[in-house]
Design brief:
heterodimer, A: alpha/beta, 10 helices, B: 333 residues, alpha/beta, Rossmann fold, 12 helices, globular, binds adenosine-5'-triphosphate, binds adenosine-5'-diphosphate, binds iron/sulfur cluster, binds magnesium ion
Chain lengths: 332, 333
């Protein structure tokens, strides 16, 4: 993260100045516009931001899943020292589902409705490793147990439609875990689920990361979930990461006005009877974005200086933010 | 004299029956005994709502929250039990009283897109019911709709647009304006903020509270987000597999939950302040309402279950003033 820092464990993933744009009739939609990210083995990163801020497109770019009119127009993505952007589609495909796995918000993006669960899971194992059907079935069963699926043998024989939504999502997560990936990108995986199932999934995924050193990017707009799960938070706004740092630091001492706004708008018992903080206005429409801080129309601290795009400010070893007038401590 | 409660839900039940399949019917011709499958989606739900209150209803997916809401809004007919509106039996109302009840209870849905007709303009989406029920004259519709739009923070300039031209948060506001336009007294929100980003969610929750003060509204607020319910509710009802298992004022429920299910559920709530934490998952699944466990429906997942819990269903009873719970453990105390 910090230049010149001598890390013992090399990063597993390094994204530098990633720009993914969509060419539309209204102009270029700069969905991702200069994103930097680093992830160590076993690390859990929470990527938060409002809908449309570019979280999913960041994840899809790392996975090599950007289709026209979208295109990665600039930047580098290195995974385990290998340049992902230089890879052929065939190599990428073998990387996905092997070393890098994905969990989508909607399990139907992963599960084939006309195939039984066991067929799909055995297939997923054998596509990447030459093992017997029996060994593959055993692995599938073990992973189902890991994600908290009761009576796994019966569930293996089910078709997806015979399972509840929460169960389908846990199976999609199990499929992501099948080949012991080194990186999982999970895009709003529990947003539609009950807290009881969400708690279970977070529990399993976290112990997996601890045990096997799998790194995780958990994409969500729910800060409360991230607060309990992630080692580090990256806050995204209009295609850029506007603040990043260790979870507790960011939650207790946000520097960027947008981060602070997000934190204060979370409802809970301590806000009862009071009005929630609201960030006025709406996410800007991306083709209209010009020079300057993208948050300035909604920002209570904005000045004329904010017409110029803020540089990255470093704070300690692990904090970074992009704001001319940060919330705390930046003005001594 | 005290005013009667605005709404009394009395032992409301809903049984869905799934017809016998063709194979089953053929088998019946040869002496088979296949009956329609009965799903007890809601059983003996009994809740009293006072005027001006916000009552939260919480429970896992499939526990019957929306089924209760649909019966209250008149979209679905109860299998048994009934409703009293301001002390009057809804079944015994005159046509005129019944219409006042129908308009008095309005529902706001989860998916702001699916619940708005894509081919209608905002002016008709919001204003049509008010005109049809004679609340306003047709020639006043435009002014009336503009005033409603402004109440929910939408610019009146958008009055001739179609739903797809709005963002998710704006569409939810349209749904709220449509409900408000008939001057309701009780609003049922079924997962009304579930699909919204936190920042938009905050705007909509604030709007609900402003409107509560301005129009003297009562809310039934259904959600699986326990943080949202804690923020907005005065009292909370916990449902499990079609039944109410606990009712308590919000502070008491979150601070000192009684029912083992409530305790486990509250333990799962992600909290900003708490920092990194582990979740102790509730073991097992919500059982199928097709085949509910005998005794206490929570017994297969309950860490305190005893033999009695597997045979005898605990009644929902008062455990202290204003608090109800359905658990045998309360008999020991
Ligand atoms: N038309 C129907 N026919 C048969 N069963 C039904 C029908 N509608 C609902 N059910 C069943 O009734 C139960 C309660 O459903 P309901 O929609 O009220 O749940 P809910 O608590 O609102 O869940 P969610 O949180 O997922 O919205 C479920 O088991 C559901 O499958
Ligand atoms: N196929 C597409 N064509 C044009 N714009 C797109 C396309 N896909 C995404 N975008 C735009 O890119 C931006 C970021 O999208 P996304 O990464 O999905 O947001 P998030 O996941 O943060 O909600 C949004 O403004 C979205 O409208
Ligand atoms: S740079 Fe200016 S407008 Fe942007 S967040 Fe900071 S103070 Fe607000
Ligand atoms: S009645 Fe028994 S099984 Fe049910 S919640 Fe109480 S202790 Fe648990
Ligand atoms: Mg997304
Ligand atoms: Mg529902």
């Amino acid at each position: 993260m910090t230049p010149g820092q001598t890390t013992t464990s090399a990063p597993l993933l390094r994204v530098q100045n990633l720009k993914t744009h969509f060419h539309t009739r209204q102009g270029a939609v700069k969905a991702v516009d200069g994103v930097d990210l680093e992830l160590a083995p076993g690390e859990i990163l929470g990527l938060v931001g409002e809908s449309g801020s570019g979280k999913s497109i960041t994840g899809f770019s790392i996975l090599g899943l950007i289709d026209p009119p979208g295109r990665i127009v600039d930047g580098n993505i290195e995974f385990d020292g290998r340049d992902l952007l230089a890879m052929k589609e065939r190599e990428l495909r073998s990387l996905r589902g092997n070393d890098i796995a994905v969990v989508f918000q909607d399990p139907s993006m992963t599960l084939n409705p006309v195939l039984r669960v066991d067929t799909q899971m055995i297939e997923a194992v054998r596509a990447h490793e030459k093992v017997s059907i029996e060994a593959a079935r055993q692995r599938a069963r073990d992973v189902l147990v890991k994600v908290g699926i009761p009576s796994p043998d019966e569930r293996l024989r089910c078709y997806p439609f015979e399972l509840s939504g929460g169960m389908r999502q846990r199976i999609a997560i199990a499929i992501a875990l099948l080949n012991r990936p080194r990186l999982i990108i999970a895009d709003e995986p529990t947003t539609a689920l009950d807290v009881s199932i969400q708690g279970q999934i977070i529990h399993e995924v976290r112990s997996l990361c601890r045990e096997t050193g799998t790194a995780l990017i958990w994409v969500t707009h729910d800060l409360a979930v991230i607060a309990g799960l992630a080692d580090r938070i990256a806050v995204m706004y209009a295609g850029r990461i506007v603040e990043t740092g260790e979870t507790d630091e960011v939650i207790h001492r946000p520097m960027h006005p947008y981060t602070r706004g997000l934190i204060e708008s979370v409802p809970s018992g301590s806000t009862r009877g009071a009005r929630l903080h609201q960030i006025e206005g709406m996410t800007p429409s991306l083709p209209e974005l010009g020079e300057g801080c993208a948050f300035r129309d909604r920002c209570h601290r904005a000045t004329d200086q904010c017409r110029v795009t803020p540089d990255v400010t470093l704070l300690g070893d692990t904090r970074e933010f992009r704001c001319w007038h940060p919330e705390t401590g930046g003005e001594q | 004299m005290t005013r009667p409660p605005i709404l009394e839900i009395r032992y409301l039940s809903k049984i869905f029956s799934q017809p016998v399949s063709l194979g089953g019917r053929i088998a019946n011709l040869f002496g088979g005994n296949n009956r329609p499958i009965q799903v007890h989606a809601v059983q003996d739900v009994d809740i009293t709502v006072e005027s001006g209150e916000v009552v939260g209803i919480v429970g896992e997916s499939g526990c019957g929250k929306s089924t209760v809401a649909r019966m209250l809004a008149g979209i679905s007919t109860p299998s048994s039990g009934g409703l009293r509106w301001r002390g009057k039996d809804v079944d015994k109302m005159t046509a005129k009283e019944r219409r006042a009840f129908d308009l008095g209870v309005q529902m706001i849905f989860q998916d702001p897109f699916a619940s708005l007709n894509p081919r209608m303009r905002i002016i008709d989406i919001i204003g049509e019911a008010a005109v049809k029920h004679g609340r306003i004259k047709r020639r006043d519709q435009r002014d009336y709709v503009v005033s409603m739009m402004e109440k929910v923070g939408l610019s009146g300039a958008y009055i001739d647009r179609f739903p797809h031209q709005f963002s998710g948060g704006q569409r939810q506001r349209i749904g709220i304006a449509r409900a408000l336009a008939v001057n309701p007294e009780l609003i049922i929100c079924d997962e009304s903020v579930a699909a919204l980003d936190v920042s938009i969610q905050a705007q909509v929750l604030n709007l609900f509270m402003d409107l509560r003060d301005e129009f003297d509204l009562t809310y039934l607020f259904i959600s699986h987000n326990l943080g949202v319910v804690e923020h907005i509710s005065d009292r909370v009802v916990i449902m499990y597999l079609g039944r109410v298992v606990e009712v308590a004022p919000t502070d008491a429920l979150y601070g000192d939950p009684n029912h083992p299910y409530t305790r486990l559920l509250i333990d799962q709530v992600p909290r900003l302040e708490a920092g990194k934490r582990d979740y102790t998952p509730i073991k097992g699944e919500l059982p199928s309402p097709l085949d509910p466990p005998p005794g206490c429906a929570f017994n297969p997942r309950c860490p305190y279950a005893t033999e009695r819990c597997r045979t005898e269903r605990p009644a929902l009873r008062e455990i202290s003033p204003g608090r109800l719970s359905a658990c045998h453990l309360n008999d020991l105390a």
